[in-house]
Transcription factor IIIB 50 kDa subunit (Seriola dumerili), 451 residues
Amino acid sequence: MSRPGLSCPGCGSSNVVEDDLYCQSQLVCVDCGSVVSEGVLANDPVGGSDVSYSRTTAVAKRPCTNLIKGLQRLKAICRTLRVHGEIEDLSQTYYNQAYQHESFIKVSLQKKEVLAGCCVLVSCRLLNWPITLGTISCLLDADSMVVGVVYQEMIKILNIKAPIINITDVMEAHSQEYKISSPHVPEEFAENSKDLTKRAVALVELAADSWIVTGRKPIPIMMAAIYLAWQSLKPTKPRLKFSLDKFCQMAKVNKHKPAMKRIAEMKEVLCKLGQEIPWIREEVTPDNVIKQVEDIVQYRYALLRRALRTHENALLECEASCEDSLTAPSQTSELVEKTPNSSSVEQCEPKAKNTERAGDGDDIPFTVSEPHGDPQDSQDPTPNWGKRVLFAPPCVIHAKKRRVAQPELKDVTGDEEISDSEIDSYIRTPREARDFALTQKMLSTSESKKS
């Protein structure tokens, strides 16, 4: 194929065509055979595309997009929590290490985002910055169970020994989330953050002494303590009528359902201690115990010792009265005639309850198995000791009943052995025999009259 516009420099002919010589294309004059142009291979690349110099000489790989987004999310969490630069740098270091690990490199984007929050959490705990797992879950808008699983997996992979934080150290940071200062709420509902934190910490310490904190999540306990502290600092009618829902709406925080149970448990402990205050003559109930919180918190150690002493004395009086009733034969026979299926120790139970109400306001009955009662009730060899003491862990007081393995059903062949108790149930008493004979006689008489 001739090329228009080209001429041979030797003979001046315009008959110039392309001639492929191996892999190099040349322009050759047909008339004289001279090469018009060459070196096309050096000027025009054959196949492939241009590669930039920076790409051919790159030493380090560029971080992927998800890693960059994760680091940006981590920085945003640090800015929201207002932590110092050392925590932010440590969080980025842990995130880069965990992200490159095989356990996190091929996971969902949600798990990678949760990983960023977990790195911030462990960095805060290592550098004594009080942040809870619930706070991180709220910032990430993720389930606390998912955050907890990723956190445990991360510290195991990176071999980090994170310290366990104390709930009282977190109270100050947690109480600042409640917008109940004077610029946010009316003056009658406003409260100083320092006073609120001090009273809430005292209530949490009292809850720890009475086993309420044991095995519980910290956020509902802190919410209950802040709510009761807010009411007790100024126990006016408007505050006492404020429910937890309205309080959370006013403070602009999300309500946790378990906080209602923690409030009831704390009020129960406050009532037990409030009844030991010498200058209080009226009965202390959950409705009016908020007014006595300041005195209870101030003298809580003395009130705890006094309540335990009163409870021990009540138990000793109950045991003494039960022993007296057991040694009196006439009283014992009368009790057995009245209630043949109950023991004399159980007859002492109402007296013990009255004594304990006068002492500490808590009902702690004795649980004694009945000797002639239901055999299923008497099979429990370990009675609930949590009901005998004044303060006990919730898992002991409200112990879950273990499921009893049901025996497998066997085919009845008729050759099974019959126990003596079962045989006795089939044998009729003389009275039953007379009644049965009388019934048969009446039936036969009625049939004869009909015929």
Observations:
- The longest strand covers residues 16-21.
